[in-house]
Amino acid sequence: MSQDPFAELKTRQREMWASFGPTALFTTPVAAHLVKFAEIGAGESVLDVGTGTGVVAITAARAGARVTALDLTPDLLEQARENARIVQREDIVWTEGDAEQLPYADASFDVVLSQFGHMFAPRPDMAVAEMRRVLKPNGRIAFATWPPEHLVGRMFALVGRHSPPPPPGASPPPQWGIPATITERLGARFDAAFFERGTMTVPALSVAHYRLFMERSVGPMQKLVESLARETRRLEAVRAEFDALVAPYYFDNVVHQSYLLTRAQARS
Ligand SMILES: C[S@@+](CC[C@H](N)C(=O)[O-])C[C@H]1O[C@@H](n2cnc3c(N)ncnc32)[C@H](O)[C@@H]1O
């Protein structure tokens, strides 16, 4: 029997993220930003946590790194393997696993990356401890997260308002987008963090097109809409709330999703 109090949440996450594949088209440019920001060098050993379809892992491999990548969701890892086959990077090691319990020896990697991945682990302290444990002395961590005050963070809050509460003790993912919180979480294990911001752009013909795309490809939105399938009025109200939230971020046929990048060096 599993000892993990969040085993059920993680089973739900595994199902929820399985439809994420089409969204990776838009996270691909962010992967280039993160890999550059992390200053990945040729020959470095890199771990990508929450790799999804492998956009960061493959970008880091193309920069010359030796890459291992981990994700909770087997369907996405299958797509990641296919992506690696297409670019002939079959040396990347893909692992099904959990950010809170990394299946690697201590001090295995020069760099640990995570793009919108480790932020979904319910216990930030465990994710940080694990990412630090597998880093070599003076290794570095670099990750992309969604701040709570920008579109995606606010979207998570909207979904949260209309969904059953998460299990007690699960930390809201967008907390990982607050520099002061990140500094506190990295604590004494890392030197002072360096931050940078960027915007992920999602082309769409209208806010309604964007909403439909999100409902089909982004697990938390998809689950919310499924849960309201028999409550037409509530579903309409939630969709109207969503459209109003997105409207200011939609211009020039593009939805603008701001993210935060963090980089920090491990203390030995
Ligand atoms: C928003 S997607 C990001 C995927 C990819 N990094 C990208 O940028 O395209 C979130 C990913 O985190 C993974 N994930 C969620 N919780 C996780 C956990 N506890 N451990 C490992 N991966 C997790 C999901 O399966 C999913 O692939």
Number of helices: 10
Fraction in helix: 40-55%
Backbone structural class: alpha/beta
Instruction: Write the element-wise H/E pattern from the N-terminal end onward.
Output: HHEHEHEEHEHHEHHHEE
CATH superfamily: Vaccinia Virus protein VP39
- Main sheet? 8 strands, mixed
Ends apart, CA distance between termini:
36 Å
Beta-strand fraction estimate: 15-25%
CATH topology: Rossmann fold
For the record, the CATH architecture stands as 3-Layer(aba) Sandwich
Using the CA coordinates, give the radius of gyration.
Answer: 18 Å
What does it look like?
- The chain is α/β, with parallel strands linked by helices.
- The chain has ten helices and eight strands.
- Strands 1, 2, 3, 4, 5, 6, 7 and 8 form an eight-stranded mixed sheet that branches.
- Helix 2 (24-37) packs across helix 3 (55-62), helix 6 packs antiparallel against helix 10 (232-246) and helix 8 (207-217) crosses helix 9.
- It is globular.
- The two termini are 36 Å apart.
- Bound molecules: S-adenosylmethionine (SAM).
- S-adenosylmethionine (SAM) binds next to helix 1, helix 2 and helix 3.
